[in-house]
Amino acid sequence: MLYVLLDLLVLAFPLALSFDRRVAFYKSWPAVFSAIAGIVLVFGAWDVWKTAIGVWSFSPRYAGTWRFLGLPAGEWLFFICVPYACIFILACVRAYITDRVFFIPLWFWYILSAAFIIAGFIWMNKTYTGVVFISVAIAILVVRIVTPANFRSANFWLSLAITYVPFLIANGVLTGLPVVLYDDSRNLGIRVFSIPLEDFFFSLSMLLLSFALYDFFSRKGPGVPKKGDAEKEAS
């Protein structure tokens, strides 16, 4: 099954380097797998629903015929391997790159969330588009409430940016063969190469939540804002 193999290739490099002395990622495994459990619960349930109503389906040729709750093994592994690899990227960036802090007004994140919610309702007739925009809004609010310092961390945004390199490769394979088959009446029909535009926002919402849960469970991150920072941010 090509899909399973692709998942394992995504996992192989970060798993092999989890024992790097400086990053020592294996020490964070309790927090990592707690975060992954949350991702499997939330996005796995979403995926089961979207598959059931025909937003997308999976090629038996590349994903196999075995299904659990309508999803192939590769799709379930996706929600384990991809968050693991991306949280590993975050840990490496934090270990090897000096962070820079910048301040963005508090109200900006609420306005941005509201904009995504409005866009979601506008395109709710396109099931994938509408729901994924709302999921981004919720993910932004979760980060703002649970790990607000991340939004002021240059390393946080750098890590997110880096994740889109393997995303383009892996998702390019999934959509190019295709392993995943999309009903284009449920999305905007805009593709970046072979990747639906909505997949970029799906990845964003999943990784925002992954990073927030990881930092919540491990109590890591850029740190707590200093006294007076909240006033400076709100100004």
Tally of separate helices? 9
The radius of gyration computed from the alpha-carbon positions, rounded to a whole number of angstroms, is: 18 Å
Helix and strand content put the structural class at mainly alpha
The helix content is: 55-70%
Largest sheet report: 2 strands, antiparallel
Q: Any idea what the shape is?
A: globular
Amino-to-carboxy terminus distance: 54 Å
The total domain count is: 1
Strand content: under 5%
The residue ranges in which pLDDT falls below 50 over 5 or more consecutive positions are 223-235
Average of the residue pLDDT scores:
92
Question: What strand line-up does the widest sheet have?
Answer: 1-2
Number of extended strands: 4
Q: Give helix and strand order, one letter per element, not per position.
A: HHEHHHHHEEEHH
In short:
With 235 residues, this protein is mainly α. The chain has helices spanning 2-16, 29-52, 60-63, 73-96, 106-122, 127-146, 154-176, 197-218, 229-234; strands spanning 56-58, 180-182, 191-192, 195-196.
Secondary structure topology:
Elements: H1 2-16, H2 29-52, E1 56-58, H3 60-63, H4 73-96, H5 106-122, H6 127-146, H7 154-176, E2 180-182, E3 191-192, E4 195-196, H8 197-218, H9 229-234
Antiparallel strand pairs: 1-2, 3-4
Helix pairs in contact: 1-4, 2-4, 2-8, 4-7, 4-8, 5-6, 6-8, 7-8
Describe the structure.
There is one protein chain. This protein is mainly alpha-helical and 235 residues long. The chain has one domain. It has nine helices and four strands, in the order H-H-E-H-H-H-H-H-E-E-E-H-H. A two-stranded antiparallel ribbon has the order 1-2. The chain has a two-stranded antiparallel sheet with strand order 3-4. A hairpin with a 2-residue loop joins strand 3 (191-192) and strand 4. Helix 2 packs antiparallel against helix 8, helix 4 (73-96) runs antiparallel to helix 7 and helix 4 crosses helix 8. The longest helix has 24 residues, at 29-52. The protein starts with a helix and ends with a helix. The model is unreliable at 223-235 (pLDDT under 50).
